[in-house]
């Protein structure tokens, strides 16, 4: 009995430690849409220093889920403004400044279109073509999970 | 091979001035046999509960071979009883759904480490010795006499040093009662166990030879 | 120890079975709600997979999607025929196909469209596509084979059984199964629909179509350019696929206006899933309440049972079983019954969802995938943990019983 309860205490301690570590990890990089790009130069947009610094790290971002193109999908577009608007229409550029593509671990259906959500995942920066859909994106959060705010 | 020494044993029930049991001193040699008589309410069951560690000793000492049950906790008394005491009760307490053999083996199997090797052979031998013809017979189909024979075999498995029986023949007819009584005394003699039997059965008392009377919690040899 | 539990269960099997069944039904309720809601979501999502963007006349977006993707008959307003021509010339468009509803054959909707949609839906499994106006391609669930002929009827007049005189189609091909309502559809060239409804290019006037019965020239070859002609008749809906995802979003924006509305079926479905999710939450709460009630009832039975068997438990103790063993026996017995109930409930719930889905599938053509997800494991583990925790209570009571007190009387 005593050995058992000691084990339980140990287990509880480990759980608390893991939870604390996870919380600390979540706090590591909060990113806002305004912080994605630096000055608009001759060659168009350039990534901001903060974005470069957070590359490969766990980040948190708040935004709106754009209306999804597919009802069951592995990805969605996160935008700065709630979306009756078009994320790709705000500028003539191929890649608008105020979107991030969010990739999930597996395909799922969505319920949160146009709702404010917070996404947590690993930041990827640089041009990448999704082999399944041919979707070319510049800034991504991968292995992501999200919750309504 | 168990010697009993009781000193200043007192048990009270809440709300009663008179103690339910008051035994200043009582001794039994190892291998001794004694019948316990007394009207109902005289404290027989309480006394047997104290002897076997089924109940806590509230005051005084019940010492078997130097082990004072008064100093043991509930778990320790359970372990001590499992190792040293064989019990036979008036209503058999066999478990339906199991065979005669499985009932004999049940107390062993319900220990953390399970039954030891050879327990099955020992149980079969005991069932033969107690005259139960079919070890695999479900106990629901046994007669009362047969049931008590299985209970006796169960009590003797592992050769306990102490054999305690509570009215073992009271629910049997004369013939079966005599047979069970004979089995108890014979087997106690064969294994050298100390035998304590609470009974009103004159034939069984005679067979045991020595009798103690319990009246209003007081013991008189 | 296990043998003792099993012997005990064997002896008391009717009661144990009844309790296990009650637990199974309570579990099945929750499982069915979860599985069925998921089947509806995944089934509808996959059925809409071929339809990235649907464009129609400004009206209800939901009705547009229900009519085009799920072939729900409803009168849709027509868009000017020029929209199709514009889309055909739009560089962002990979393919666009008009769809025209209104006819039926023995309950199977007859839909006018072009070869682009046949390819978009997954292509032909058997036979070939349209070459002439009298050709038809049937969905995988339509019981017709290449070579069969039929006369469609006006859907709204079907009750009166008015057959289009002089309109005969010949089945040329069968679509690959799509798991969508289109498996129940008969596809014909949209020009053929126009002709048979007297809506030839140039004199399309809303409202006069239904009185203007035309005759179909079945041997006239299909002319893809006719659909994109600026003076083509109006259509109720156009299915569009963009070259890229950005194109799809741009097209959606571009064609939302006074003249037309563009919508991703996925966004309509996503709104629907929100409602569906709310319904699931309510049903799940009902299921959890039922499970809690069952847990309470089972607990009561277990407690009665343990109290009733005080003497037997006391005897086990008297014969040398330790308190720990007693605890384990009682806990094991209750937990075993509960676990068996939960396991049976999972099977039962799956079976129920399968049956419900089969009925929906037969009625709508939407394939309903009844499947477990990783998240269900949490639900099942939660149920088992709750059952295990509940079993602790009778076990603790048995543990606390004194053997002497149990044997007395």
Automatic annotation (TrEMBL), chain A:
Keyword terms, alphabetized: Signal
Top-level taxonomic group: Bacteria
UniProt signal peptide: 1-24
UniProt keyword Signal present: yes
Record protein name field: DUF3299 domain-containing protein
Species whose genome carries this gene: Amaricoccus solimangrovi
From TrEMBL, chain B:
Domain ABC transporter: 4-221
InterPro entries per UniProt: AAA+_ATPase (IPR003593), ABC_transporter-like_ATP-bd (IPR003439), ABC_transpr_LolD-like (IPR015854), P-loop_NTPase (IPR027417)
UniProt keyword list: ATP-binding, Nucleotide-binding
Protein name, entry field: ATP-binding cassette domain-containing protein
Keyword Nucleotide-binding listed: yes
SUPFAM superfamilies named in the record: P-loop containing nucleoside triphosphate hydrolases (SSF52540)
GO CC terms: plasma membrane
Keyword field contains Cytoplasm: no
MF annotations from Gene Ontology: ATP binding; ATP hydrolysis activity; transmembrane transporter activity
Organism ancestry: Bacteria, Pseudomonadati, Pseudomonadota, Alphaproteobacteria, Rhodobacterales
Automatic annotation (TrEMBL), chain C:
Organism, as annotated: Amaricoccus solimangrovi
Gene Ontology cellular component terms for the protein in this record: plasma membrane
Pfam families: FtsX
Compartment(s) of residence: Cell membrane
Keywords, in A-Z order: Cell membrane, Membrane, Transmembrane, Transmembrane helix
Annotated ABC3 transporter permease C-terminal domain residues: 287-400
Protein name: FtsX-like permease family protein
Family matches, as InterPro entries: ABC-4/HrtB_transporter, ABC3_permease_C
Range of residues in the leader sequence: none
Main location: membrane
Record field: transmembrane: 282-304, 325-352, 372-399
Domain of life: Bacteria
Membrane topology: Multi-pass membrane protein
